[in-house]
Structure formats: C-alpha cells, structure tokens
Design goal:
This protein has about 120 residues and is mainly α. The chain has seven helices and two strands. Strands 1-2 form a two-stranded antiparallel ribbon. α1 packs across α5 and α5 packs across α6. The chain is globular, with a radius of gyration of 15 Å.
Length: about 120
C-alpha cells in the first residue's frame, strides 16, 4: 500500500465505504463551502442516511465541523489530518483499487463481515 501507517489508520477507522471517501474528497475540494445534508445527497446522489453516517464518522475523526445551522464544512482539527487525507486522495487517484481493498478490509466493515459469513469453516 502506498499510504503511511497513519493515513492507513485514518482510512480504516473513519472511511467506511467508497461513497464516504468520495464525500470526504468532495468536502475537501470545497473547504470554504458549508454543505447541508440535502446538498450532499443531491451532489453525490446518495441517501440522507448514508450522508449522516459518513458525516458522523468524519466528525468523530476531526475532519469536518458541524455548524449551527446543521451544515458541515471540511475543517480538520489538526493540519496533520489534512496531510493524511491528501495521502489518501493521491493514492485513490493513482491506485484506486488498492484504496478500495483497504476500505473493504477494515475491521468492522459490514461488507467484509457479510462476505465472511459465507466462508466455509473447515474445523466446525
């Protein structure tokens, strides 16, 4: 993988889907814009539930801030967070399949848990 350990840890802990990554990169490309959930749903053709879930993860990671009117803005709590997001963005631009594999391989990823439920257990 082309990511530093810290950027990889951020990816695995805070970005639960490719759609969430696309959302984060959209927010990052427009750091001066305040986004409503409806704006994000419309822009990325997602659902309100998916937007809320992704924003919750980003808030917890210190990547976005929630404004008083319910809007959100990309505003990392520390400059190093933006550096890690930049690493992720560069890796996604040059090696998207590697980044996607890391998202799906993250512990607790629902898609991976579902796929693992179909694995044959040889010792059962």
């Amino acid at each position: 993988m082309v990511l530093s350990d810290d950027a990889l840890a951020l990816l695995r802990s805070s970005i639960r889907s490719v759609w969430a990554l696309e959302l984060l990169l959209l927010l990052r490309r427009n750091p001066d814009r305040d986004w409503s959930n409806a704006d994000l749903v419309r822009e990325l053709r997602g659902s309100d539930v998916v937007v809320q879930e992704a924003l919750g993860g980003f808030l917890g990671a210190g990547l976005v801030v929630a404004l008083a009117d319910g809007r959100h803005r990309y505003h990392p709590a520390a400059p190093v967070l933006d550096q890690w997001v930049e690493e992720i963005a560069q890796a996604y631009a040059t090696r998207p399949s590697a980044v996607i594999r890391e998202i799906f391989a993250a512990p607790g990823n629902k898609v991976q848990i579902f796929a693992d439920s179909f694995r044959f257990r040889l010792n059962d």
